[in-house]
Amino acid sequence: MNKKISLGLAISLMAIASAFTFILTSFFSLQSYNKKVVDVNEKAKKYSSLQRLDSFVRDNYYGDIDEGKLNDGILKGFVEGLGDGSSEYLSADEYLEEQTDNSGEVIGLGLFLEEDDSGYIRIDRILEGSPAEDLGIEAGDIIISVSGMDVIDTGFDEAMEAINGSEGTAVDLVVRRNGIDTSYTFTRRSIELVTVSGSLIDGYIGYIRIDSFKENTPEQFIETLQRMTSNGAEALIFDIRDNSGGLISSLQNCLDPLLPEGVIASAEYKDGHSETVLYSDDSMLDLPVVVMVNKNTSSEAELFAASLRDYAGAQLVGTTTSGKGVLQTVTEFENGGAVKLTVAEISNEISGTFNKTGLTPDVQVDITDPDYDAQYYKALETANYMLDN
């Protein structure tokens, strides 16, 4: 039996529904408004505190204020306050230095330097083809003076700044070796970084070391890979220990000839949408692969290892990796500085994300003897096992 409702009842129900909808809408609008008010008030408190601090410092600080450095410091502090070790604000000089470094070139003397226990500067490593190499500088040498300034009196940071400079300019260093001090004059120049090197082990295993993923890395990688395969490599070992990553575009170009066609990895953003960050065409190198990793293998290097394990059956040898599986964008400011901000989490299509967890190697090997590279020899053993099976 069909039941009918009266026109009056229908109108009453519609009115109740409308009122209910209005109440719900008003409630959520009020919630949104209150949240915005809280946000505005919180921001006002922050900027008010900063303004009070600025006034206090300007009234009481006994010294000169460099407005440029002060502004950079404020911006750096803001980004550091996010608590994300991957995001950072770069001053104009730092941003220019990073751009130069990402290009695969550095301007300077070709020295990797650390503070020595004595307070002087210790030379840790020297770039091939650099001014330092040309003049016979060696790892372990100690820099005691820069441009006539004693390093201990000047301070490590200021001495390091004095060593850096623009291309074509000169700097005087006093270098100590075995207790003997020698004076040198260096001319800073542009030096191409060698990020990929390789050798054929026992005539059939290609060993390829990748230090980082810079703009010039794919060219060096492809050349090294082709040299290994054309000379008879039947298996490949990729050593990405201490590789902290670099440019994802360079990683893409290195992985492309190694993997099958398809989407390799995606990035998931704050609003929930995803974008492809790694894609490979249909050319694939069909060889047994071993990847050497350690705790300092990070970011794009981890993505390299994970992708090879997922799609090329690679075996990972070493220790658990860093766990930095995020995507960052770089936005330049009007003052020449830039902010490097984490905007998404990266996920491999097969194994998922390694962010914060790192990659657990298939063959765990710790190095207990600094004079014996146990990971390298285990990688060789693993490559031979994969060839035999």
Describe this structure in words.
The protein is of the alpha+beta class and about 400 residues long. It has two domains: about 105-190, Roll (Pdz3 Domain), CATH 2.30.42; about 195-389, 2-enoyl-CoA Hydratase, Chain A, domain 1. About 35% of the residues lie in helices and about 25% in strands. It has ten helices and 19 strands. Strands 3, 4, 5, 6, 7 and 8 form a six-stranded antiparallel sheet that branches. Strands 10-11-12-15-16-19 form a six-stranded mixed sheet, with helices on both faces. A hairpin with a 2-residue loop joins β5 and β6. The longest helix has about 55 residues, at about 5-60. The radius of gyration is 29 Å and the shape is globular. The model has no long low-confidence stretch (mean pLDDT about 90).
Concise description?
Helix content is 37%, strand content 27%. It has 389 residues and is an alpha+beta fold.
Task: Please tag this protein with its features.
Pdz3 Domain, about 25% strand, 6-stranded mixed sheet, 19 strands, 6-stranded antiparallel sheet, 2-enoyl-CoA Hydratase, Chain A, domain 1, 10 helices, alpha+beta, about 400 residues
